[in-house]
Design brief:
4% helix; mainly beta; eight-stranded antiparallel barrel
């Protein structure tokens, strides 16, 4: 089993589809990865629970996940992935089933 290098909270710093004001509308936007592949995220009025796994392929760590959540009382779900870049920052994509998709950048919360 691979060590999960993603554990902890990552502060969203930028997204393709939404500006910083939206990302931090209700609280500081984040992705949080926990043990066993579970976690959560929140940005704007979107929040959800994630479940996935990390793996290392050709020396690169990647976490692929599915998610369920809501935005303004509407139920949502989708999938996504995240990679830790050489600079230690997180880069990934979140995809809404049948809808939006956006890359995101995040840094580890201290």
């Amino acid at each position: 089993m691979n060590k999960n290098l993603f554990l902890g909270r990552w502060r969203i710093t930028e997204m393709e589809e939404w500006d910083k004001d939206f990302i931090d509308e209700e609280e500081d936007g984040y992705f949080e990865f926990g043990k066993g592949g579970d976690g959560e995220f929140h940005f704007g009025n979107v929040q959800g629970s994630i479940h996935g796994e990390s793996e290392t392929i050709e020396g690169k760590s990647r976490f692929e996940f599915t998610w369920v959540g809501s935005a303004e009382m509407d139920e949502l779900n989708g999938r996504g992935w995240a990679e830790i870049q050489e600079n230690g920052k997180l880069y990934g994509k979140i995809i809404f089933h049948g809808g939006d998709k956006s890359w995101f950048k995040a840094k580890r919360k201290k």
